[in-house]
């Protein structure tokens, strides 16, 4: 099945979930178009494609209008369906301006991740971070048996992150764990962005965790960038081979950096196994070649 067909199937399921009706109909449009569906947005007069009509009353949009005590419009992001942590994502606008991003927990795993992110962000909000800017929790509740998490929008500008800022953020996130390092958990290029004030915007804190080896975030960032240029086995080997260089700004020795990279790869494989999802293929195809010839981890 093509990516567009997969997205459309998942979209149909999501629309039935979030706009169950009955209620007054509202016209939306698939953007940029049905062959490449990315967003389901309120219809405007200049939209060229056929409208998608969904109920308005009794919908998630009506619920969010009550949450924010004002009329809102929602744009539904049409997500890829083949993801372990997939969930509906809504952009909420009021008066033509961004108001919030909303995650919907529509499965047991999605609800668990939303609960984890809510706890992480509330913890971070009280720490007075100087380098990292996470979103703020605006609302966390339930609607029709679904978990609803509304987060403040961040002023995202897609730009490469300077290395000094990247490592300053890694260090600050690790310090949030106090005596036990913490990591963001998905410190990937698509989850970070330089802010106009010189800080680093960081979102998607679902995997935040305390008590991991120092440097996991930096290794994850390198590995995810490597996966854009090479297959998983090569990226995993590069992760280990380049560990000393990549983690040097954190003050780790070459041996410690290499061990950190190995532990990270094993932890990632364990995460995929827990999620029941193998986006990189079976571990024996990408993990084993990177760790088989290394010394036994202590």
Q: What can you see in these coordinates?
A:
- The chain has 298 residues and is an alpha+beta fold.
- It folds into two domains: 3-106, no CATH class; 163-291, no CATH class.
- The protein is built from ten helices and 13 strands.
- It has helices at 3-18, 60-68, 108-125, 163-175, 216-226, 232-241, 243-247, 254-275, 283-286, 288-291, and strands spanning 25-33, 36-42, 52-55, 73-77, 89-94, 97-105, 132-133, 137-143, 146-151, 182-183, 192-194, 200-202, 209-210.
- The strands form three sheets. The chain has an eight-stranded antiparallel β-sheet, with helices on both faces. The chain has a three-stranded mixed β-sheet with strand order 7-12-11. Strands 10-13 form a two-stranded antiparallel ribbon.
- Strand 11 and strand 12 (200-202) form a beta hairpin.
- Helix 5 crosses helix 6 and helix 6 packs antiparallel against helix 8 (254-275).
- The mean pLDDT is 91.
